[in-house]
Amino acid sequence: MKIWLDTIDIDAIRKAQAMGVLAGVTTNPSILATANREVEAVLGEILDAQAGPLAAQVVSRELDGMLAQARRLAAISPRMVVKIPAVGEGYRAMSILEREGIATLATTIFETRQLALAALAGASYAAPYVNRIELSTGNAFEVVESSQRLLDAYGYRTAILAAAIKTVDQFLRCARIGVAAVTLPVNVFQQLYASSEDIEQSLRKFDAAWQSNGLTRDAALFQE
């Protein structure tokens, strides 16, 4: 399972990229609206900060508007992925854009039926909103699991990019289901590599044993 970050925090993006665990970055209108800079500059900086895809969402609800915005976003970089709401004309937009070679991500998914239609339309990715589904109906992981089974059964190329992940447990449950990727807010990503008292206690024991023996403590191989 791949990890994308859902953020415009450049420092966090660069750190994840340096760790070697970052597959891509997602944004949405709410996230981009928090920036005090032109959208084009923010997207360009994110592309420079990491080597993977970058997803940005259209804001039009009309077909012509979605297509025009999507094409402009795609022209920024071949690594752009265009997020399209999985409702109404969104499916038609996904189908047209994918045929043009523009990668799309079906977003705002709350039900398996939305993901099924997105797969039929040829979307590259589909993003069920895990935590929001859980708060709404309490069956988020049933939706994710049934969606993954559907994709597997029919061999659709659409990959699930589980979104709105709010806890490490939700991350792990998505991993156990076998989805292709998750997109995480920075705080949840940080929790994945955070230490704990058990970890620190084990490291202290290793250090104490090492320092107790002069031959290991002074070994040239391990000098900083």
Task: Fill in the keyword field for this structure.
single chain; 224 residues; alpha/beta; TIM Barrel; 2 domains; 12 helices; 8 strands; 53% helix; globular; schiff base; Transaldolase family protein; Aldolase_TIM; TAL/FSA; Transaldolase_AS
How is the secondary structure organized here?
Elements: E1 2-6, H1 10-19, E2 22-26, H2 29-32, H3 39-49, E3 54-57, H4 63-76, E4 80-85, H5 90-99, E5 104-109, H6 112-121, E6 125-128, H7 130-136, H8 140-154, E7 159-162, H9 168-177, E8 181-184, H10 186-193, H11 197-211, H12 214-217
Parallel strand pairs: 1-2, 1-8, 2-3, 3-4, 4-5, 5-6, 6-7, 7-8
Helix pairs in contact: 4-5, 6-8
Describe this structure in words.
There is one protein chain. The protein has 224 residues and is of the alpha/beta class. It folds into two domains: 2-193, TIM Barrel (Alpha-Beta Barrel); 195-224, no CATH class. Helix content is 53%, strand content 17%. It has twelve helices and eight strands. The chain has an eight-stranded parallel beta barrel with strand order 1-2-3-4-5-6-7-8, surrounded by eight helices. Helix 9 (168-177) links the parallel strand 7 and strand 8 (181-184). It is globular, with a radius of gyration of 21 Å. The two termini are 35 Å apart.
